[in-house]
Amino acid sequence: MDCEPFKIIPVGMVRKENEKTWLEIYPEFSEAVEGLGKEDWIKLILWFHESDTPERRSVLKVHPYNNPKNPLTGVFATRSPVRPNPLAIYTVRIHRIEGSRLYIDWIDAHDGTPVADIKILVERLDCPRDTPIEEWKLDIGKSRQVGEINLIPRKDEHLDELEEVSPDKYNALVVEIGPKTTVLTAKELVDLIEVLEEFYDKLPVEIKDRFRRREGHSP
């Protein structure tokens, strides 16, 4: 089936100098960096422009690691830069951010390689494993973010079928802190709420008064 070509717009480029590697984000995309910070893990998507030729795009099998002693293998089963669309994906840590520069781990991409996109690393999505709550059971639209914590509830459909499930076995909430993911059972969620209420009660009266005023309650 013939497909219409589409356009990828570089948002920056890889830069290298001595032992340093950084991403130079173009000024028009600088606002997209907001929210990233030091020590964050990101998924870096590059366009291997030096492999973007009709001849290299037509190669469908390669010797892995460019070693002829390895058997020919379909490119989709390899990390070869030679493929129908020369995209490369890296998982790297941000060491520091200076303006439009994101200093990252060393990677084998060449200086000047276009950056196609950057995404945060999410363990739940990028490090797949058997999880107590399958992705389709999560109510993504009702997720809430508090600071660096992302809370994703389970869908409340068909709960009438779960009357016999005990609170300590019913997985109710996915909690993401940065790239890390954990799951809370209904019992653990209730325990967490009780602990948070205890911590809230210990806040200075002046701080709690400010929250009440903000919410329209009299102090």
The CATH homologous superfamily name of the largest domain equals YaeB-like
Order of SSEs, N→C?
EEEHEEEEEHEEEEHH
Helix content: 10-25%
Question: Mind describing the biggest β-sheet?
Answer: 6 strands, antiparallel, barrel
Q: How many strands?
A: 12
The proportion of strand residues reads: 25-35%
* C-alpha geometry: extended
Structural category: alpha+beta
Biggest sheet, spatial arrangement of strands: 1-2-7-6-3-8
Looking at the structure, the CATH topology of the largest domain is Elongation Factor Tu (Ef-tu), domain 3
Mean pLDDT: 88
CATH hierarchy: architecture of the largest domain: Beta Barrel
- Quaternary state, please? single chain
At the first level of CATH, the class of the largest domain is Mainly Beta
Give the C-alpha Rg.
24 Å
Stretches with pLDDT under 50, minimum 5 residues: none
Family: Belongs to the tRNA methyltransferase O family.
Keywords: Methyltransferase, S-adenosyl-L-methionine, Transferase
Protein name: tRNA-Thr(GGU) m(6)t(6)A37 methyltransferase TsaA
Organism: Thermococcus piezophilus
